[in-house]
Amino acid sequence: MKTHQNARVILSMSAQETLLHDIYQRRSIEACGVLLGTIDANGNWQVQQIQPLQNTANSSVYFEFAPEDLLEVELTRPGEIIGVYHSHPGGFASASTTDRENMQRVNLEQEIPWVWLIICGPFNEAFLQRADGQIPLASILAYHHYSQEGLQQIAVQAEQNFRTEL
After folding, report:
1. pLDDT (tens digit, 9 = 90+) per residue, 69-124?
2. Distance between CA 166 and CA 158 in Å, rounded?
3. What are the residues facing 126 on neighbouring strands?
């Protein structure tokens, strides 16, 4: 899969910590939720916070959250949802067919400019030690479905790495 040349996802320290905690606490199922932040003028997603949502499917291979849970976040944080995340506890390091269909439906058909993060496991003690308080960036896949370019992988940066590269 081609990586989009310009766009990137930048995760704040707070977002990284919440994400690590959520996926580790729900390591036997697909943890899921929404990304809160802003999309800048260059099309980069600046993720400031993570809002975990219940996986109503309670599955290790599928996630779904209740529409009313998503609506509640939208009503309390209007305009701040910039994406969705979920985990692949079994370690599958790619977007599934279902993931790809949902990305296309939301990004193109519904014209919602979300980015999609997939955090790849397994989330065992070795992962936690390797994480050292942050999710290894190699474990995070990001996607967006563009109208012209199709599904593209997006680079992911941790806030601390982004700042040191400036």
Report:
1. 999 999 999 999 999 999 999 888 899 999 999 999 999 999 999 999 999 988 88
2. 13
3. none
Q: Is 157 exposed, middle or buried (0-12, 13-18, 19+ CB in 10 A)?
A: middle
Assign residue 58 a region (left: φ > 0; alpha: ψ between -120 and 50; beta: otherwise).
left
pTM: 0.90
Q: Contact at 8 Å (CB) between 16 and 163?
A: no
For residue 137, which amino acid is it? L
Collapsing DSSP states into helix, strand and coil, what is residue 142? Answer: strand
**Tokens encoding 14:** 């707070």
How far the first Cα of the chain sits from its last, in Å, is 28
Which one-letter DSSP state was computed for residue 2? P
Tokens representing 142 are 């990001």
